[in-house]
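Quick log. Single chain, no ligands specified.
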Amino acid sequence: MRVVVAGLGVQGHKRRRFAGSDFVATVDPVNPEADFRDLADVPLDRYDAVLACIPDAPKVALLNYCIDNGKHVLVEKPLWAGDEADIIALEESAQARGVVLYTAYNHRFEPHYVRMRDLIRSGELGEIYSCRMFYGNGTARLVRDSVWRDHGAGVLPDLGSHLLDTCRFWFGNISDAFTLIGANAFENRAADHVVIGNESRRPRIELEMTLLMWRNHFTCDILAEKGTAHISSLCKWGPSEFTKRMRVLPSGRPPEDNVTLVQDDPTWALEYAHFKGLVEHGARTDLTDALWLHRTLKRLGDEVEAQIAENVA
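-> predicted structure:
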């Protein structure tokens, strides 16, 4: 499979690296390192797929161009559009042309995320009561200095999209009844700290995200009928720890299993291999998760922007 990387920023450089010998060219309207300024300038017979690492605004147009020309696409999260009808149309077009359109959520390939999914599915913990996740990095100043990133709902589509997708990954077709608990723009114009929650059914879910965590960090706490499970940090920030504790009745110190990983981030290579496998096996494009995330992020994003505007006023 021959791939073009569209958008030569931080993500684009990573995608180019892990595409390895499949990589043939880069496209970027401003980066002088790129081979082409526009995807339409790349001869169609030179590539089979596009790794789209671009801002939200041009995504639908670029995806339609790729699909119309029979090119498979990995597009960075979230798959954003002016209206969810655009996403439905993309899915229908991709299916009609036999094209794989895949929205990238590389955290699904984080070893402890997979371990948590498998533990939940095993039923070993019994009924899952509560899930709390925190995801923070220290990019507030970088985002504020960016030409296009410090706008809209800020940290919500950036980090919140990962957290919401993780909920789908672990718990399946959950309710989209998330509510905004709090939104702040402590340093940026757009929100740099957001908390959302879902109390509509079990498990209750609480998600906190921020650009103000000066040492990048992720934590998760699952509370359940027969025990608890916890993640501390990701491989890219390592060490990454997974802890399972099984409940002692009526009470007492629980037996504990720990798995600590100290390794490079494996998610980029694993996700690229997954995308390549989908293409090779002719997988049918399914944007169900993308539609759910678009609907949830759009509604919450409007609330975040309104909250920030109210705080400023």
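Residues 60 and 251 are 54 Å apart (CA to CA).
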